[in-house]
Fold each of these.
Amino acid sequence: MRFHLPDAKKLVHEVVIPLRWGDMDAMGHINNTLYFRYMEVCRLEWMYKVNGKIDLTGQGPIIVNAFCNFLRQLEFPGDVRVTMYVTNPGRTSFESYHVIERTDQPGVVYAEGGARMVWTDYAARKSAPLPEAVRARLTA
């Protein structure tokens, strides 16, 4: 099942990640858990650019929901390009979407997924308003 990427999306980050031989499972393809890791790497690189180093005594994002649609099997060797989009900023949250393609097959989507991110006061363990600097990076 393919998801529909919202029209009001904003491309925010892209990363290329090598597929490793050790990431393959007994079936000879990249294990499905690694797709979430690829999205995580892209999301964290972007968050560090937006918010700097995460301070667990301050505020920052947490994931409250994550999903991945596996469309094709990734196999070693090669590299994947993970593209990240953001949309729907609310008072405390926003959506992130990711598209995973092989670099040697541009336009062929191997997986797509995303996560709902909630800005959180880590010490209070509750949601907090998105900082204006973060909100500015989320809007087109």
Amino acid sequence: MEDFNRGDVPIGAFPGPAYIDKWSAGYKDGWPDSAGQTGQPSRYYPSKVLSVKNGMLDWYLHSENGISMGAAPTPKIPNATTNPPRANSLLYGRYSVRFKADPLKGFKTAWLLWPDSKMWPRDGEIDFPESDLATSSFYGAVHKMGTDPRDTDVFYANASFTSWHVATMEWSPGKVEFFLDGHSLGAGTSRVPNTPMHYILQTESCMFNVCPKPETAGHLHLDWIAIWKRA
């Protein structure tokens, strides 16, 4: 479990000595995010976005010089069992996060499990919470293994990012169940991913071509995160 109580880290210095053993800042500055890969001026800039303060990991989501900036930090999971080993990869597990965000239209989360094979959609994908930060209902999604990237089970939370919530994914053989604040939203049981996947707190821009306005700026906070390996 990580509760970010090992000291503050200013923007530009994450993870720093206090958190380097458990965290990576993820994609490097200037790396195109999902929308950037399709031509939008949106990029990952952890050095301009990430900090730790008041016992929370903080994303300062904003734009500079016409570029909307996000970050995708990754936790290092002790004793990850995949082969070859990845610091943020498991085959099955439980992932739980407590979070809150300003209603920043055009910025989004897709905190996800992505296949180590990088073979998508063949090996699937799991996301929760996912949606634009200004939405009234974020969701969990199981992208099924196969050939159709649209073949997805979606479970809506009927809750917004503007209040504190705990989102949990339980991934086991043949099943992914989503929980919000301890209550089940449902489970995907069809063609569930069954290969090792790595966990990324992907926070970026432009969901369904809705991008942030230049003046849109605010914060996403992660209070704590806990990860369990399957016994």
Amino acid sequence: MAVLAESGSNPDVDLLYDINGLAKDAPHWFDRVMEFVGEYGLLLAMVLLVLWCWSTVRRRGGESAAPSVAALVWAPLAAGLAVLVNVPIRGFVERPRPFVDHRNLDVLVSGKTDYSFVSDHATITMALGVGLFVANRRFGIAGIGLALLEGFCRVYMGVHYPTDVIGGFALGTAVVLLLSPPATALLTPLMRAVERSARAGWIVRRRPAAGSSAVLPGARQPVESEERDLAA
């Protein structure tokens, strides 16, 4: 791939220098924080957000619990699939990391020797964010916000071009949305079956408290309850 101009003729490179230039003016401790957040912290935050959403869905229960949990299961599966799709894309494009072709960048993470397009971090976080949005709008908006912050961090750290991040956002979103109909069609019946299971039902909805007369969807009412209903 042709080497990009260092400045002036390419908006992608200009924006790279503008965002990465913030790292040069920031205190050393702030750069270390951004390094951790961009490399590990936001990925961990996304996982915790998915778990929080799952806990909320199973606590509320209702008829929408199984489809929502199915969407939450699909989110990390889609993220993993998107990363696999990215493997041949990187090999085909063969775009070097920004610091290979451009000088005077403040690179916060060393040891990056693989290709740059597209960003795995941006792909994973956006896939999780969009997957969360399918399951729950409120959590999804928060997840997409974290994904956008991840993209900014990757450019700030000097390890990706802005277009690497945009490509990752597009790839993660496309995999989640394009494959969501067949994925949810397969996963939703599975989650409904899990919901009816005596042992694994807690995965989809919180177990009722002892003595509660709550009945799982598709399950028969207790005989005593049926007799009371008939008597009434």
